[in-house]
From TrEMBL:
It comes from Polaribacter marinus. It comes from the Bacteria. The keyword Endoplasmic reticulum does not apply. This is Acyl-CoA thioesterase. Pfam families: 4HBT. The keyword ATP-binding does not apply. Belongs to the 4-hydroxybenzoyl-CoA thioesterase family. Keywords: Hydrolase. GO terms for molecular function: fatty acyl-CoA hydrolase activity. Residues 18-103 form the Thioesterase domain.
Length: 132
């Protein structure tokens, strides 16, 4: 299992009038986690797109446990639990600065050839970075 962690501070624009993070922003927190997970392997979305691969999200789930609030410092833990093939699946845990679990989630992305818009296998350089 490959894990990455990144921190972010909740911005005012991410909250409602009560100072609670709007539920739609969790997808962006998950994206931040995925982006930094890839970066920890020495790969970026830009690198993948330059090589002709894109990663559209095909499934997204979020389980809300506790509210995140304005100015909270969130830690986004991103996990890869199985070898990517044509799809890559991530699990997430978001905790606040008090180590309280805020939410859990899951997303599935598909490797797509940018020219043909057809599914593609996980690039060899990513598999190699993961030790497969």
């Amino acid at each position: 299992m490959k894990k990455s962690s990144t921190k972010t501070r909740v911005r005012y624009s991410e909250t409602d009038q009560m100072g609670v993070v709007y539920h739609g922003n969790y997808a962006q927190f998950f994206e931040l986690g995925r982006t930094e997970w890839l970066r920890s392997l020495g790969v970026t979305y830009k690198d993948m797109e330059t090589s002709g691969i894109m990663l559209p999200v095909i499934s997204l789930n979020c389980n809300f446990i506790k509210s995140a609030l304005y100015d909270d410092i969130l830690t986004i833990h991103t996990f890869l639990r199985k070898k990517p093939m044509v799809k890559i699946e991530f699990d997430y845990e978001i905790l606040n600065q008090n180590d309280e679990l805020i939410c859990t989630g899951n997303s599935v992305l598909a490797f797509m050839n940018m020219n043909t818009l057809k599914p593609a296998r996980c690039p060899d350089y990513l598999l190699k970075s993961l030790g497969f």
